[in-house]
Amino acid sequence: MHYRRITPTAVEVFGPEGEKLSIRADTVVVCAGQESHNPLEAELEASGIPFAVVGGAKDARSVDAVRATAEGLAAARTLAP
């Protein structure tokens, strides 16, 4: 599966056969990369949009997928409507 884009109501992907699929979502948590990279933090904070920085974006000193996944899940539970 390959991600195509995130829209206000869904995540669009290409399925195993290359077909375009739309997965309905009102909240999306992106977990990608292994280096601290959070350029949106200041902009989101200034705009008042609720957000959480997790995983390697929060602390990239040690790559820990279990910690990052747990932090992402906790953020989703906190931020989801």
**Mind summarizing the main beta sheet?**
3 strands, antiparallel
The rounded Rg comes to 14 Å
Report strand order across the widest sheet: 1-2-3
Task: Give the quaternary arrangement of the chains.
Answer: single chain
Compute the separation of the termini in Å.
27 Å
* Class from secondary-structure proportions: alpha+beta
| Helix and strand sequence | EEEHHH
Strand content: 15-25%
Instruction: Note poorly predicted spans.
Output: none
For the residues shown, what is the average pLDDT? 85
Dominant shape: globular
Total DSSP E strands: 3
Number of helices: 3
Percentage of residues assigned to helices = 25-40%
Task: Explain how this protein is built.
The protein is α+β, with helices and mostly antiparallel strands and 81 residues long. Helix content is 32%, strand content 19%. It is built from three helices and three strands, in the order βββααα. It has helices at residues 41-47, 55-58, 65-79; strands spanning 2-6, 10-14, 20-24. The longest helix has 15 residues, at 65-79. It starts with a strand and ends with a helix.
